[in-house]
Design a protein that fits this description.
Strand content: 15-25%
Number of domains: 1
CATH architecture: Alpha-Beta Barrel
Order of helices and strands: EHEHEHEHEEHEHEHH
Number of helices: 8
Number of strands: 8
Distance between the termini: 13 Å
Bound molecules: D-xylitol-5-phosphate, zinc ion
Shape: globular
Length: about 220
Amino acid sequence: MNHLIAPSLLSADFGHLAQDIEMINRSETDWLHLDIMDGVFVPNISFGFPVLKYVAELCQKPLDVHLMIVQPEKFIPEVKALGAMMMNVHYEACTHLHRVVGAIHDAGMKAGVTLNPSTPVCLLRDIICDVDMVLLMSVNPGFGGQKFIEHTIDKVRELRQLIEESGSKALIQVDGGVNLDTGRRLVEAGADVLVAGNSVFKAPDPVAMIHELKSL
Ligand code: DX5
Ligand code: ZN
């Protein structure tokens, strides 16, 4: 499968969100990645559902929602109401991950599980066949524009092996510090979906950058 590109709205110009979403709509973007934070699970707060309601109305691409919050299962109805295609929850935020994944599916969405940089891939062994995607964080979550953690490349290879051995259909997504260099190496290692914030929205020509990332 050709890899997918999911620009992260966190790096957009919040004063002109409609313009940036219009750019996303006419680009080769596959999914729009939305980062929701709570100031507890991560040391930052981004945007919440009242803002995302307008984003969802304007955006013509599938929505990939990354919840960096404690007790993400509380917000399954709100994420569903956005019309989200994918709901990503953190492994570290879910004591009863299997139950949460089931509840996301019952709501009619695809379920993704996200690992922080320090959480090993092997912990996914007993859930890998139940999830639609694994998101590997390649920075500590909370902020855009951070430096890519190189060890993520090894984790992509390890996850690819776990998926193949188990017969899982899960996609591999990577988020944090993705640019043309790290993106190319991630795709070579087996990544299916690249999230890109700063490298897209701070580029002189974001549509051209999305095209370049898509062409890796
Ligand atoms: C970070 C978020 C990312 C962020 C990536 O916690 O999950 O999605 O927007 O931004 P860049 O690509 O600039 O590292
Ligand atoms: Zn994210």
